[in-house]
Amino acid sequence: MGGLVSSLFTGVSGLLGNSQAMNIIGDNISNVNTVGFKGSKAVFSDIFSTILTNGSTTSQVGRGSQLQGVLQSFSQGSFEASSNALDLAVDGSGFFVTNNGTSNFYTRAGQFRLNEGGLVQSITGEILQGQQITNGVTSATVSNIDLAGVQSSPQASTSFTLGANLDVSASAGTTFTSPITLFNSVGDTTIMSFAWTKAATPSNTWGFNLSSSSGTVATVNGGAVSSGSVTFDSSGVLSSVTAGGSALSSLADIPIVISFTGSNPTAANLSVNWDIATASASNGKLTGFAADSNNNSLVQDGFTTGTLTGLSVDGEGKISGLFNNGQTEQLFQVTLADFLAPSGLTRRGSNLFSESQQSGQPTLGFAGSGGLGSIIGNTLELSNVDLASEFVTMIQTQQAFQAAARIISTTDDLLTETVNLVR
Hints:
33 strands, 2 helices, 11-stranded antiparallel sheet, Tick-borne Encephalitis virus Glycoprotein, domain 1, 3 domains, 6-stranded mixed sheet
């Protein structure tokens, strides 16, 4: 009689365990489209209860099964391309580190956006953590990735090349202009213009006069004369230059100083080299061919202040800003965390995990180093749930539940028959 009663409890244990397993399966299936979701698996163990002794024979009788635990699977999910540069995926080991203002959380869901304050924020409101990059050097301090007010600092022009053809067949007195935009150290612009005039003699010479749209050309080649001339040989190749009141003994860079006027400080005055010595056909060569005068290459190395217009993220998690002055600068590097036992992490909902005693403390680092995976920009990691496998497991669990229920109903029939024996 006691064995029959025990079999009831055995059946009940099967019902309880498999109903809990079905709940886990349902959680997996319902999150099949959740970005960065990591599926779970029910782990069962047996319940040992009774030792039966019959003379010299000992028998061990179990009392059913129980849900021993839930095993989180951190296998890699598939990737999906995105148009958002801050949609990030980790290819390999590691978690993004986020912070809600009081605590750090860890996630594989890389759906990030710039919020109204310039912070890189997850769709659930946590701030992505990283380390600031200044002049190519990454800080050792982990902080919120804050892009508010980020600008590209101006760079003064230090050299320029002027590529132009000056028509040697033009009549004397013919004029032509070559304007080039330059920048000083505070980002102010000036248009320096070469006003060319064809000389009567020698016929292969053009004179020039320099002027600035927002200042004065103070010196050219060290002289206080803002004019000069260029002469070409019979092949149209530049052969000699006169600048600042003196002839150059050989073709060399010509220093030019522009003094800015108005409220611009003296420190913002501009010293720039006219690069003649290394100019080539592709980067700014002056020619004197018998063809229409034209400007074909006006190149300089300065730029004004730039405002942020876009972002990109490389495989090491370095976030670069794209600025409207044409510059690209590295701003932050995304911090990743790894755990000795990631399956021991505590689920917090919203695709977030927190560290626990079972997971151990996080090891922080950068993508591509210390065993951490790489980061893929414009990409999301999808759920790692295999829908086909979940349906197979669901059918198995359903059958196990039905079998446990049959144990109870059959045992009930046996108990009824046993009671009827005394009638």
